[in-house]
């Protein structure tokens, strides 16, 4: 059985994908079990001694000055969950819900949160048995963590709320019962430990970064096909050019382009047809590379966040200390996800401009709108319209969420991150960008056919052949959205990258 061992310290984005999309099982390491039990011992001791500690023997937020007796701690934790489950809007898809659950398990397993092992095991059982809570997308300020979405996750743990199980939407109680899982009664600190963290925004962001890395490689493949259709000049990708401005993403993109186009009879050298290309061809390494560097930066931040303790207060059992801090604040992720959205949007921006060069006869030697019988046929005219629409929408979505803050909890929580909004926007930008790049690939293959395929590069030939297995050269107008959807599914499957890497090695 495929599984991921949870330690709290070494989860990777690849692990998240394995669990959230490939249904790997999760299991706590022995060290994680010891850490959880050790921190819980300290919480129980403080409750028994009736020490005043935020969130354990006090209320929350503005109510932090209200003392709670040990007899009331169970009611306090239950009330916290049911009152904080205020999410609205569409529900997160299954892979994101699974990622949220996994990240919360990993954070709690560090032993700084004070939950009982029994409680943590309930969440693990739900994940392994595929009981997926219904979690609305909207309602989080991203500080004090993702309170609303995580509360919907915990509702199911206590037999409330709703969940998907074996394809049915059920009450939380019914879903647990069918899966053979007993609901839990939360006790001191547990409700707060389960919902006070950045796991919703980070789950969305982690899967988006993973997909963005793959999409950035596909953007290079799309650009290569367009280069061939337009007899682009490969001299601009010469290693010497990029060695004297050594941004990693730029260097890697130039290498990708040369490897994908190796052996092409369609590309040209400097001065062969023209002295230089327009920026969207000549500057592919600089434009794509900058986005890749930004994506890599966000990946580094996510790798820190997914192995962090982000609730409050934090338990330090070795020092017998509980400290109230602010690790729940989503600002490190909010800024990162705004950056991520901008980086992905630029891949669409330049892709649409390449598409324009393919369809505009004033910018190429190709037939107008890539159709031989223009006038009676519109060809790819409205494909470019659609791409332009998505690019424009991305520009609206790329406005940063992190520059906004609305105080909450009677101004006790007077600066919030809006990080979950930033993550969701980045995800939406990614979906739009995937469509735009699919449109460019479809148009580039059409353009290659119209220009006369004189022999493509080692990598671009593979991409072209895959596209042509699923689509035909368009001679007379057809229902275009079906062709776009076919090409988008090819992009979504990451088939192009996988097949090309088998021949030319790993793309960067």
UniProtKB/TrEMBL annotation:
CDD domains: PAL-HAL. Keywords: Cytoplasm, Histidine metabolism, Lyase. The keyword Lyase applies. InterPro entries: Aromatic_Lyase, Fumarase/histidase_N, HutH, L-Aspartase-like, Phe/His_NH3-lyase_AS. Pfam families: Lyase_aromatic. Contains an active site 4-methylidene-imidazol-5-one (MIO), which is formed autocatalytically by cyclization and dehydration of residues Ser-Ser-Gly. Its main location: cytoplasm. It is found in: Cytoplasm. Pathway: Amino-acid degradation; L-histidine degradation into L-glutamate; N-formimidoyl-L-glutamate from L-histidine: step 1/3. It catalyses: L-histidine = trans-urocanate + NH4(+). The modification 2,3-didehydroalanine (Ser) is found at residue 144. One of its GO terms (biological process) is L-histidine catabolic process to glutamate and formate. This is Histidine ammonia-lyase. It comes from Alkalithermobacter thermoalcaliphilus JW-YL-7 = DSM 7308.
